[in-house]
Amino acid sequence: MKINLDKAINLLKKGELVIFPTETVYGLGGNANNEKTIRKIYQLKKRPIINPLICHFKNINEIEKNFILNDYAYDLATKFCPGPLTLILEKKESSKVSPRASNNKKFVACRIPNHSIAQALLNEINFPIAAPSANLSSKLSPTKISHISNILLKNAYFIDGGKSLYGLESTVVKIDGNNAKILRLGSITYEQIKKIIPNTIINNFHTELISPGQLIKHYSPNKPIRINVDYVDENEALLNFGINNLKSKIIELNLSINSDLEEASRNFYDYLHIIDKSECKKIAIAPIPNNDLGKTLNDRLIRASSIK
Ligand code: TXA
Ligand code: MG
């Protein structure tokens, strides 16, 4: 695919928004140093201002100019950057990153995307790109341009980079003393982080809540979903995993017949988008093992199925 990036680069320089591919999901990005641009992102996504944005940098040197990294942060960055890791880092006084990007907090989410188009954009500009996933707030993340809502496509220039390589968002980690806290499970697993920092804990608030009803709805299709099913109702579509006896009369897609969690992750949002548009009234989801990327998939499913 031949892509001309000049237009996107010029728009970014002018403070406009660009939808671009990363290895995880598509981002809706703009100049992270420009307060007006940040406001546009929040408005377009209908995102609550209290939910801060991830700033995308071209390399670790650019992060070091703006943020303080301790030894543990360097250990993780050395292993996983560029890639689907987001580190929550303390801003230096000298940083030009807009306080709006992090809801005026001094800790900011930073990541170095490992995608040739994202890298090509970052190489031609002299500011980081603040970019949430390119979906309306609380809806499914996009792993293809066709998943992105018309409201976003009409209001931002977009670059089609095909299907995302990983298909799940980055893993958000905050270093706290000797601990690594996983604030959002993602494309890098708990098990992978734990190999680098033994004191790693998952602290992505739903694990601390007692009732799933208390969860804030997120990553959700428009149709209601039921997870860990052992039967499928008449009016339900089926998102299946592995080999079993589950069947739907409406539509069935299998995340991975071979029970391969990487394949399932790549297909996850794509299949949910397809099923959501089908004739079904509800979506039944087969059990997915709760290890490695399965933890991330189950995290998204628990949030998507929450009623709030
Ligand atoms: O893979 C990804 O991370 C994609 C691509 C585009 O980079 N971006 C993405 O952004 O998923 P978004 O805005 O949809 O999700 C950002 C996550 C949210 O869970 C947010 O609460 C958390 O990162 N986050 C951002 N800034 C934070 C901060 N300062 N402290 C704690 N969590 C933060
Ligand atoms: Mg998002």
β-strand number = 15
How many helices? The count is 9
**CATH class wording of the largest domain:** Alpha Beta
Small molecules bound: threonylcarbamoyladenylate, magnesium ion
Radius of gyration, taken over Cα atoms and rounded to an integer in Å: 19 Å
Domain module count: 2
CATH topology of the largest domain: DHBP synthase
Summarize the biggest pleated sheet: 11 strands, mixed
CATH superfamily of the largest domain: DHBP synthase
Portion in beta strands: 15-25%
**What average pLDDT do the residues reach?**
94
Helix-strand string: HEEHEHEHEEHEHEEEHEEEEHEH
Unreliable segments (pLDDT under 50, ≥5 consecutive)?
206-215
Distance between the ends: 41 Å
Structure in a nutshell:
The chain is α/β, with parallel strands linked by helices and 308 residues long.
Describe the protein.
By secondary structure, the chain is of the alpha/beta class. It has two domains: 2-202, DHBP synthase, CATH 3.90.870; 225-304, Threonylcarbamoyl-AMP synthase, C-terminal domain (Rossmann fold, 3-Layer(aba) Sandwich). It is 28% helix and 19% strand. The protein has nine helices and 15 strands. Strands 1, 2, 3, 4, 5, 6, 7, 8, 9, 10 and 11 form an eleven-stranded mixed sheet that branches. A hairpin with a 2-residue loop joins strand 9 and strand 10 (179-184). The longest helix is centred in the C-terminal third of the chain and has 16 residues, at 261-276. Residues 206-215 have low confidence and may be disordered. It binds threonylcarbamoyladenylate and magnesium ion (MG). Magnesium ion binds at residues 132-133, 141.
